[in-house]
Design a protein that fits this description.
Ald_DH_N, five-stranded parallel beta sheet, Ald_DH_CS_GLU, Aldehyde dehydrogenase family protein, AlphKGSA_gudD, binds 2-oxoglutaric acid, binds NADPH dihydro-nicotinamide-adenine-dinucleotide phosphate, alpha/beta, oxidoreductase activity, acting on the aldehyde or oxo group of donors, NAD or NADP as acceptor
Length: 488
């Protein structure tokens, strides 16, 4: 089914769809063809945000009193609506931010699975009985919702990330105000339509689109927002945290990565090449878990490099809606400019550009979009900027290590600590890697990208606020523990 392009999407506040009080909208463009307007979204004001927060605050009084199983029923219904619109919402995602249709469908299916997973959480244990020193008393813990949760989400996973924040927020009894990335606000509006159609009470889920500096910052600073969950860049994440901390609100941040893959001397090189390409270049490298540093032990450096370069020749670049496309465009002009400037930077630092170009990708189908070829640098040393800074694009830096021990040290030589992977068949290497790698996700014989919804997700160092999202770990952020002491 072809989606309707050029429609105007509204805010969703207190159970109703409406325009911003500003009267202004912004066009959301297709990065594969900037002449295509996917839709128009509201440029909201502080007043719109205040109304959304007030409605979430009001709705939280009855939502928190509903049984977890009843909240779960509504998440199951939202999952069913999302499932019935999977292809349409995935197509909107591809058109709005460029990832291939296959990846967008996979992500939307992941959103459905997350909703179903958290629906079940509504019937699981939320506390413990702890023996009191008073033998006549009962002491236990229970958990209570935070109240109103502000969700600030990025454009790179426009369905999965909002859902993995909203579903646990809702099941544990919080109400939500979502401020999605402006880049993918049409996809976000369609996602919120699924919650609305599922019959969530008015005010339980609200959508306010608009500028990050105004609506996002406004959410972080709002006195009636009790918790803020954020995924995006480090710079913005820190500002969000400071605003939340200043007024005593709870916050959670998932931010950047500079994720290494280590290729040991005994690695299966074909599998390692496939994992490097998939982890580093799918979604044009625009994942916080994307591989960007490829650390190769000396003995296999040349063999690995040769196989990698040969395989890259087969990558097809184009519009994500075309079945033959493996890699779509960068999500926006800023992303393209950043990627090209880092390629230039790599050359200036003395690295060897073995694949790719300092100019945008050329071809008859590529002139209207933000396309760039994958870039692979050799002769990279760990202190170069291309080996240290998050590029968020299809750029791989090959770094040579004299030994496995040096490879581990190089992998840790970063301010980030989100995901890391190793290719080896040696159990000792695997154990050393698992023990010594300073990252929240450590993956053996598998790519750095990709997370499972039932497992904790988050990073160390500058990659996160050290909290974890997803799986049962989500309960820690979205609830507070209350210790109860009862004496008859
Ligand atoms: N870890 C990850 O998954 C992601 C990392 N990034 C990194 O960030 C870089 C820039 O991407 P970008 O999209 O600009 O990421 P941002 O961190 O700017 O955006 C993430 C979210 O925060 C919002 N936002 C922006 N400014 C503020 C603010 N002052 N207060 C509160 N919220 C705000 C954005 O809204 P709006 O869209 O309106 O600006 C968006 O919803 C990328 O190149 C990449 O390095 C980006 C996306 C995801
Ligand atoms: O790798 C994934 O599936 C998740 C990545 C992610 O959370 C992100 O890029 O923000």
């Amino acid at each position: 089914m072809a989606i309707e392009l050029g429609k105007t999407y509204l805010n969703y506040i207190d159970g109703g769809w409406g325009p911003s009080r500003s009267g202004n909208t912004a066009a959301s463009l297709n990065p594969a063809n900037i002449n295509e307007i996917v839709g128009y979204v509201q440029l909201s004001t502080k007043e719109d945000l205040d109304r959304a927060v007030a409605s979430a605050k009001d709705a939280s009084k009855s939502w928190r009193r509903l049984a977890g199983s009843a909240r779960g029923e509504l998440l199951i219904k939202a999952a069913a609506v999302l499932e019935s619109r999977l292809e349409e919402i995935a197509e909107t995602m591809t058109r709005e931010m460029g990832k291939t249709f296959a990846e967008a469908k996979g992500e939307t299916a992941r959103g459905i699975a997350i909703l179903r997973y958290y629906a079940g959480e509504g019937m699981r244990r939320i506390g413990d009985v702890i023996p009191s020193t008073d033998s006549e008393a009962l002491m236990l813990t229970t958990r209570v919702p935070l109240g109103v949760v502000g969700v600030i989400s990025p454009w790179n996973f426009p369905v999965a990330i909002p859902v993995w924040k909203m579903a646990p927020a809702l099941i544990y009894g919080n109400t939500v105000v979502l401020k999605p990335a402006q880049e993918t606000a049409v996809t976000a509006a369609k996602l919120v339509e699924c919650f609305a159609e599922a019959g969530l009470p008015a005010g339980v889920v609200n959508l306010v689109t608009g500028s990050g500096a105004l609506v996002g910052q406004g959410l972080a600073e709002h006195p009636d927002v009790n918790g803020i969950t954020f995924t995006g860049s480090n710079q913005v994440g820190k500002r969000v945290a400071q605003a939340a901390l200043a007024r005593g609100a709870k916050y959670q941040l998932e931010m950047g990565g500079k994720n290494p893959i280590i290729i040991a001397a005994d690695a299966d090189l074909d599998l390692a090449v496939d994992a490097t390409i998939s982890g580093g270049l799918r979604s044009s490298g625009q994942k916080c878990t994307a591989t960007s540093r490829v650390i190769i032990v000396n003995e296999v450096y040349e063999a690995f490099k040769k196989r990698l370069l040969a395989k890259l020749e087969g990558i097809t670049i184009g519009n994500g809606m075309d079945a033959g496309t493996w890699m779509g465009p960068c999500a926006n002009e800023q992303q393209l400019t950043t990627v090209l400037s880092y390629i230039q930077q790599g050359l200036e630092e003395g690295a060897e550009l073995m694949f790719g170009s300092i100019s945008r990708a050329e071809g008859p189908q590529l002139t209207k979009g933000y396309f760039v070829k994958p870039a692979v640098f050799g002769n990279v040393s760990s202190r170069m900027r291309i080996a240290q800074e998050e590029i968020f694009g299809p750029v791989l830096a090959l770094i040579r290590a004299e030994s496995f021990e040096e490879a581990i040290a190089l992998a840790n030589d970063t301010e980030f600590g989100l995901s890391a992977s190793v290719f080896t068949q040696n159990i000792g290497n695997m154990l050393t890697f698992i023990q010594d790698l300073d990252a929240g996700l450590v993956r053996v014989n598998s790519e750095t990208a990709g997370v499972e919804l039932q497992a904790p997700f988050g990073g160390t160092k500058q990659s996160s606020s050290h909290s974890r999202e997803q799986g049962q770990a989500a309960i820690e952020f979205f609830t507070s523990i209350k210790t109860v002491f009862i004496k008859g």
